[in-house]
Specification:
single chain; alpha+beta
Length: 106
């Protein structure tokens, strides 16, 4: 077993950065193209709500739904430590969770 850091980022479909770029695309570009992190998965939730209590849910009657997204990323602790400052700039406050985990090497 080896130790990695796992990062979970919560945001919404269509959310934009301060520079008005698509947050999802910016995160994936930064993590994949610029830093070559070991692994990342992007999940779309069927429903969710945040601190403001506004519910977002998948509904066939609504065409423009901004569903919750969850991006999970893992790599060696030093790699995650290097990307965290930029992630904190891109992602709204209190939407990133990070913890150590063990990865099966065998």
């Amino acid at each position: 077993m080896s130790t990695v850091k796992l990062v979970r980022i919560y945001f919404k479909e269509g959310e934009q950065t301060k520079d008005h770029h698509n947050l999802m695309k910016e995160l994936l570009h930064f993590l994949h193209d610029e830093h070559k992190v070991r692994g990342a998965s992007l999940f779309r939730a069927v429903a969710g709500f945040g601190a403001h209590g506004v519910a977002h849910a998948d509904d066939l009657l609504r065409l423009n739904v901004h569903l919750p997204l969850i991006l999970e990323v893992f790599d060696d602790p030093d790699v995650i430590d290097r990307v965290m400052p930029r992630l904190r700039e891109l992602v709204p406050a209190k939407h990133i969770i990070c913890w150590k985990a063990e990865i099966a090497d065998d």
